[in-house]
Amino acid sequence: MSTSHKRIWVGVDAGKGHHWAVAVDADGETLFSTKVINDEAQILTLIETARERADEVRWAVDISGRASTLLLALLVANGQRVVYVPGRTVNRMSGAYRGEAKTDAKDAKVIADQARMRRDFAPLETPPELVSTLQLLTNHRADLIADRVRLINRLRDMLVGICPALERAFDYSAAKGPVVMLTEYQTPAALRRIGVKRLTTWLERRKVRGASDVAAKAVEAAQSQQTALPGEKQAAKLVCDLAHQLLALDERIKDNDREIRETFRTDDRAEIIESMPGMGPILGAEFVAIVGDLGGHKDAGRLASHAGLAPVARDSGRRTGNYHRPKRYNRRLRHIFYMSAQTSMMRPGPSRDYYLKKRSEGLLHTQALLSLARRRVDVLWAMLRDKRLFTSAPPVTQAA
User: Fold this and answer.
1) Over 111-149, what HEC string results?
2) What's the predicted TM-score (pTM) here?
3) CB neighbours of 47 closer than 8 A, spacing ≥ 6?
4) DSSP notation for 219-277
5) Could you give the CA distance from residue 70 to residue 330 in angstroms, rounded to a whole number?
6) N or C: which end of the chain has fewer CB within 10 A?
7) Residue 5: CB atoms within 10 Å
8) Which tens digits make up the pLDDT trace of 228-286?
């Protein structure tokens, strides 16, 4: 069968259950518009249909996450070129097309048309197995941490209804001992009955650090309240259940962190990344999960822009040299560099020296940290490019 077009563009509005695909020619005319179930057979049929309509097919999708994993894997396996059109672009450009309706077919048409007119969209490829694994593990860790925050907030809210003094006595997010205590003793009356000495012994049997301090603070808080509040018994049961859930969740987070470390350290770049002060295995794994092999970043400046650490110009008319904080960037990547900068500046070394220099220039703490984070992007880029470990002194080049 002879093809009637040299090149066509297929835009896919991706979803979990189904996708919608629209193909356009060089003039922007729609060739076909169809719903495709997120199933291997139907996706392969779509690919074959597009191939029959043109010598060259270029694909564009608006989601690069788990919903489009099967679609992207099949496209790459069949030698198809795919680009990523951000959802923000689709949303804003939809207003430039006729009609106010919001449908999957219209979104797919916008995606295809934007891919036809623009050449600056990032190409998509299936990531290596290591990167995919780290993406899954780090995303799961973020979910577990969010669950932990919710559990602690619920636990503290329940404790306020039992004994406000006991809720104030401990930082339940940082100390395991008070949480262990709450699995058995939740009310002021129960804590007063057991007393400091017996509670200390009970905590020591469960290998709680600083058991005597925990017991003393808990009993002191219990003695400050003699009144039993309404609903105390039921609230105590819920606190007990939440404390058990929190301890179990902490074990799951530890197991997840161990798996992340073991997986990350199989990467050849792990030793280089970890040699940089402030970049431990967790932050390093998140970095690799986001940037992959750095192939999508031309230089350190592009990586800094991806992390939101490069200021964006906002000039107009006579107003020049006006820079502001970017709005579109990867929040997790920015968090990685910010946290690593904050950790490294606490210890003596070049990072702290640079931070103090910026503070002496009049920058606020956050501004100095962001400046340090931007500098560390250049350093990490150079380390990965040259495949060398971090040293406090700059590398010495041999004279020719």
Assistant:
1) HHHHHHHCCCCEECCCCCHHHHHHHHHHHHHHHHHHHHH
2) 0.84
3) 57, 74, 75, 78, 80
4) HHHHHT--PPPTTHHHHHHHHHHHHHHHHHHHHHHHHHHHHHHHHHTTSTTHHHHHHST
5) 24
6) C
7) 17
8) 889 999 999 999 999 999 999 999 999 999 999 999 999 999 999 999 999 999 999 99
